[in-house]
Amino acid sequence: MLRKILAATLSLALLVGLSACGATDNASSSGAGQSAGGLTVATLNQLDAWPAYAAMKDDVADKYGISYEMKLYKAGFQLVEDSALEKWQIGDVGAVPALLGVLNRHLSVVGIAADESDANALMVKAKSPLLKEESNGVLGSADAVRGKAIYTTQASSAHRLVAAYLKKLDLTEADVNLQYASQADCLAALGDGRADIVSLWAPNTYEAEEIAGGAKTLAKGSDLGVTNYMVYVVDSAWAKNNKDAIARFLATVGHEAGAFEEVKDADLVSFFKDYAKADLDEKRIADERKSHQLFTVEEQLALMSDGDLQKSLDDVATFFLQINRFADSNYGQLTKMNFGITDEYLKAAQKLEEKAS
């Protein structure tokens, strides 16, 4: 019983304790598309923010009758934490912090921004001997990895990747020297030799390749069967009175997702520089395209009805159980809530699309 109480307390505290993980100055706003109605869309500095950004530039948002401003965060946990302060109304965030938001911040999952499974990777120095071994379908081996220093951002998609990799090698966290750090500190630890393995997400993975001596991928999400969705979340109480605004937003970004294949690389370079505050050349843009899949409204509805999203969030909840961040009662609560998933707003968005066509 004491273990369950402690785990429940930890899960509640996790949003606060880790919200600043990754950087200081966690949020900034984009003045473009300022909404007279005060609607704010919060995102991270990733490709899945493109549809919302593009819709303000090419008048698709106007077509669907919605106006908003965008707020940029460097850490998903800070984004979720700020929902309690009403700093945004629609959030685009990773499944790991989103699930904590469902449990502790009364958020609902109303859409799927992207599949970014392969934007998460375990990386090592280019000359690491781990790259020369293979076991159970992945690079490395239990004997070679045991005792190694692995740096990751705690209770994040990167941490989840570490857990999946260790499981693949029949190891546990106790078998390695696991260190929790911000993504910037993970990069620094790989560069100065403190870390043997680091777990990163893009665009930090690109920075790793530029460190002295270079870095290579040991394993990525698809290698380990880890699906990581970026999801759209809203405050459940706010959503009840703002169904139309949510539906219009989802129709807007769904339209942009459907047109993504036609987007020029130069436009994405500008997006990353102007909004995401990242300097990516066209080679990196090609990597971004490969590691992210954006979804139309129809595709999002299919992922919900087929159970793909539910399975992925169930896997995240199981991960939290494994690292003692959730108690059994937390898991039971989430399953009863269907992990906060609702297709109500996407169905309304689909009707808006039909009217607009």
Automatic annotation (TrEMBL):
Domain SsuA/THI5-like: 141-252
Superkingdom, natural source: Bacteria
Residues making up the signal peptide according to the UniProt record: 1-22
InterPro entries, alphabetized: SsuA/THI5
Keyword terms, alphabetized: Signal
Matches recorded under Pfam families: NMT1
Gene3D superfamilies given in the database record: Periplasmic binding protein-like II (3.40.190.10)
Protein name stated in the entry: NMT1/THI5 like
Species for this entry: Peptococcus niger
